[in-house]
Amino acid sequence: MNVLITGATGGIGKSLIDIFIKNNYHVIALGRNVDELKKLQNKYGHMILCYKINLNYEDEIDSFFQFLEDKKIKIHILINGAGIGELDFFKNTSYQKIKKIIDTNILALTKFTSYFYKRMIKKGGTIINISSTAGFQCGGPLMAIYYATKSYVNSFTYSLYEESKNTKISIILLAPGPTLTNFAGMSQNLNSLEKLYITSPKEVATALFNGFIKKKFLIIPGKINKILYYSNKLLPSKIMLSFIKKIQEKKMSKE
Prior knowledge:
- This protein is α/β, with parallel strands linked by helices.
- The chain has a single domain (2-254), classed as Rossmann fold (3-Layer(aba) Sandwich), CATH 3.40.50.720.
- 51% of the residues lie in helices and 13% in strands.
- The protein has helices spanning 11-22, 34-44, 58-71, 95-123, 144-163, 194-197, 201-213, 223-232, 237-254; strands spanning 2-5, 26-31, 48-52, 77-80, 125-130, 169-174, 218-219.
- α1 (11-22) links the parallel β1 and β2.
């Protein structure tokens, strides 16, 4: 079976490639980093097909879709894993940066989902959208655009899940908490408290694969993140916003 992964050269993306290939899936890996794509190709050989693409450009996405059709490559599992964010006050964030985040986190994800959803609804398949626990919050001061885009992904995926019941397609939402990657504001040196809730890319990938096998819809890696997900629903919005702002300010002070 073929698995298509966007954002394949990032931390979670690479861990997903590893776990799916170890379980005998073939992977089509999409990313912008040519050097990383070459490393993946050398590492996995015939089990992977690497394709360079910039998801901010719709014409490149259309060219990729045409490539799949020309090569008659069928995708059984789509993992929308590409995602970027910001760490700054909105007043300091350029429109170019804002547009790039929206193009990657919303437009590209929606375009890929639209293309494959219409095919899988008839022939079967799985679409996995990688979001974030941030998408369940009422907002994210200092990461306003990122949080807003993840709210979109969560809402969009929940809607598709309900619409696709009793069809041949499966919809999955992966919502990790903070993960140890090169994401904005993520320090590689964790204190004892951070070690309790910050997950590794491998942990996230393992949780996703296990949830996929068990046919779960919502997957939140990490026991602490699951607890925080449910407890957040009980706290007033103003308190949560203030708490999130303090966390992001602490991240900024480390940069």
